[in-house]
Amino acid sequence: MARSSERFRPFQLEGLPLPEEALQRWLAALPRRRPPVERVPLGEAAGRVLAEDIASRQPVPHFARSQVDGVAVRAADTAGATAEAPVSLRLRGRVAMGRPAGWPVAAGEAALVPTGGMLPPGTDAVVMVEEFPELLGSGSSHVPERVTVRRAVAAGENVIPPGADVQPGQVVLTAGRRLRAHDVGVLAGVGVTEVPVFARPQVALISTGVELVPPEAEPGPGQIRDMNAVALAALVEQGGGRVRPMGIVADDREALRDVIARGLACDMVVLSGGSSVGEEDWTARIVEEMGPPGVIVHGVRLAPGKPTLLALVGDVPVVGAPGNPVSAQVVFRLYGLPALRRIAGEADAAGWQATVRARLTEDVRGPRGRELHMRVALVPGPAGWLARPIRGGSHQLMTMVAADGLIVVPPDETLPAGSVVEVRPWG
User: Fold this and answer.
1) Of the candidates 106, 75, 76, 77, which has an alpha carbon nearest to the alpha carbon of residue 92?
2) What is residue 333's DSSP assignment?
3) Residues 234 and 333 reside in one and the same domain
4) I need a labelling partner for 169 at 20 to 30 A (CA). Which of 143, 233, 266, 349 fits?
């Protein structure tokens, strides 16, 4: 497709979407495809996206357990027991942790049982050891011949029944879930040791700009080290992707076309720099020529990050972030991570992120026509968290180091000091 001055005219705020509208357009356009499935050991499953529903073949726990150290009894034997008219029961013995009793408890009998121990056959309740003066201070190896119950006990008291945590046949985790620590714990509990997960998507990472040099190089006059490649790679890894570094490419149309074309062999392409509409910013033009579908969003009413580019070449998402490091990371968090989650097979591409409520320490005003994503530091206050704005340009990455997250300030509005805001912490 030839260059179109109509499509690539300089950004006019009035024609650009707000960040949420841009996100909804992006999510609606992103392809839904099932990634390849692989099986990984349980110890490597945390952070991966589950590919299949997991159902338990047996109850968890699979036997009745005691919630306390105490005496396992037959509840019927304690009917009518009071301090004035106690019931005396013969102790059959002590249940060892991790072993069955090996003998049943008959009417008029009881057994010592530890917390988590298996109830002996015939018992259906446990009385806490603290209710038996004859057991306190008797030593761990001493088992008296009899114990005295001084109250009526209900069946099921202090007992964890079979299936209290998981019922047989119950689906414990559903496909599309990114596995967390407690999820893999549940998988261990139901006996799953090889976990079906989606393959991690490969993300081509391209830095553009003739002024950039690798981090290990000594910058010359007019040059700067490439911070975006390393920072964006870390975000890709955190989001569950695998990075394919494509290096630094100068602001040259043919060189950029070549590296983007090679990047399209991956599941996603992320570029930093070259997403604006300057004379040497070719990305949008090249991607449009490589389409369809082509450009989905080019420019967002966002500060920082107005020159955001969101596009599809076939079913490969292409995210073009501005070159300034703060802008690049804000844009990738807003639009790159949802795309990465979608192609990784997550059920919720938009993602769920807990926010922290805090009160602003000073006034913050949104810029004209643009939604401000303001860096803030969380500071403990006398009545909860305080949000202290971290001011600085989008080229100052140290402002993100000093911050703990972002707040959203609507365009042309002022949030006065003391306002309650929702802080989205860095993930």
Assistant:
1) 106
2) I
3) yes
4) 349
Rounded distance between C-alpha atoms, residue 246 and residue 269, angstroms: 10
Helix (H, G, I), strand (E, B) or coil at 112: strand
- Please tell me the distance from the alpha carbon of residue 249 to that of residue 22, in angstroms, as a whole number: 27
Are 139 and 73 part of one and the same domain?
A: yes
Q: How deeply is 411 buried, as exposed, middle or buried, from its count of CB atoms within 10 A (0-12, 13-18, 19+)?
A: middle
At 279 the pLDDT is 42
pLDDT classification of 422: cutoffs 50, 70, 90: very high
Q: Is there a single domain that holds both residue 168 and residue 156? A: no
pLDDT at 5: 37
Shared-domain flag, residues 326 and 239? yes
- At 163-206, the pLDDT tens digits run 999 999 999 999 999 999 999 999 999 999 999 999 999 999 99
Same domain? 394 vs 271: no
CA distance 199 to 34: 10
> If you write DSSP's letter for every residue of 278-301 in order, what string do you get?
STT--HHHHHHHH-SEEEEEE--S
Residue 384 belongs to a domain with what CATH number?
Answer: 2.40.340.10
